[in-house]
Design goal:
101 residues, mainly alpha, Methane Monooxygenase Hydroxylase, Chain G, domain 1, two-stranded antiparallel ribbon, 3 helices, 4% strand, elongated
Length: 101
């Protein structure tokens, strides 16, 4: 993470932000589709199938963010004399939240 000089922080995924936002827009569309399915009284198994697909898509985004955190934030902390242990702990806590959800 670094300072831009404008008061905004930029994280490692800044270079991939457009693609990440595109994936999230597609997931948002999937969730809106589930909403429409419920409104239209779609068969429950079909709705569950779409919920599963949206969940897997969100999990894929989460895994990508965790991978980037480990590859960039932890590595940067170690290289720059920070505390990589704290960054690993953050990742471990995030993984635990994902596993519980």
């Amino acid at each position: 993470m670094g300072e831009s000089g404008t008061g905004e922080e930029h994280y490692w995924y800044a270079a991939e932000k457009k693609a990440l936002l595109g994936r999230l827009r597609r997931i948002e569309g999937q969730v809106r589709g589930v909403h429409r399915m419920v409104e239209d009284d779609t068969y429950c198994i079909e709705i569950l199938t779409q919920i599963s697909a949206a969940t897997r898509a969100l999990q894929a985004v989460a895994i990508g963010l965790l991978e980037g955190h480990l590859g960039h934030c932890v590595a940067d902390a170690a290289r720059d004399g920070g505390d990589p242990t704290a960054k690993v702990k953050e990742a471990t806590e995030a993984i635990a939240r994902l596993v519980r959800s």
